[in-house]
């Protein structure tokens, strides 16, 4: 059998480009023109907005799900490339497409049968990225954590302090609440062991009060110290400054595009007024409508990008860190629902093993919590999802309580 000839990795295959990109000629070879993708500044801002909503929310909420993002986009008047309304499928496709981190894949399925092609037949080409790889990975983890196949709704809203973030290190499944002596004693126990017995997972059972205290004490001693916070957040703050510079440049580009479209509209209006152009010409009407749409979308995207820039939060000073650490330690000792939300903003996963308890969290969530406590216009506390970042070393491990 003659192997199928695949297109070169740098040549665009001719299908409709993903939102945020446009097809451009890259090289002329005889009668054939090689094409590739470049970023469309206007559409790219819509892609960035979708990822921001998934990670940070709209400034009044925590990270938003696919349906909530679609609702937000439609309410804000943000339309798809063809002017339609956003749906769950379209938002999910954007959030899961590797194109936006620079790896566009095509020839995934056979055109008629729609069966997935073997990996050897899938072609990948390098394109300019729109989203940071770290942001993309965090969004994938958020989507996975919300999957109904992995997390039941009752786990997210359970009554205990560590419900939804406490897992068995052996099988990776959630630790659930068990009681004894008519409810007098409460334990976290491996859900796999509870359902299927020790043949499925040897699991662990830990008194709830002891594990809660262990986690809270460790976060207070090891995380909520100003010097430790500064050490953890240093790289995140540097990336935030770099991102702010890129967004400022992008906003300037959007403003330039809007001004350019507006100038062209003015020239067309002058031509009509001077009798050089006929307003009844259908092509002229289409061109005016196209320029108006380009101008209005560029302006709207620039305003949204400026709003996102404002929500990056305040400058983190030693005084801010001291104040945050003091307030957070106090909040961790309250017995209200706020205590649980606050803890989940600091730690997103607790793994219980035979010899240690591992506490893990996401630096960006820690920074968002810090900014919110400092009065910045950021999303409020929510129940973040797991991506291990802070406390990766030996100091994150504590002995279980038996």
CATH C-level of the domain at 21-145: Alpha Beta
> Tally of extended strands?
11
* Broad shape: elongated
Low-confidence stretches: 1-12, 149-157, 376-397
The biggest beta sheet reads: 4 strands, mixed
Query: Roughly what percent helix?
Result: 40-55%
| Strand portion | 5-15%
**Order of strands, widest sheet:** 5-9-10-11
In CATH, the homologous superfamily of the domain at 21-145 goes by the name: Putative Large Serine Recombinase, Chain B, Domain 2
Report the end-to-end length measured between terminal Cα atoms.
Answer: 63 Å
Round the mean pLDDT to the nearest integer and report it.
Answer: 77
Gyration radius (Cα, Å) is 26 Å
Count of DSSP-assigned helices: 12
Which structural class do the helices and strands define? alpha+beta
**Element-level helix/strand string:** EEHHHEEHHEEEHEHHHHHEEHE
Q: Which second-level CATH architecture of the domain at 21-145 applies?
A: Alpha-Beta Complex
CATH topology of the domain at 21-145: Hect, E3 ligase catalytic domain fold
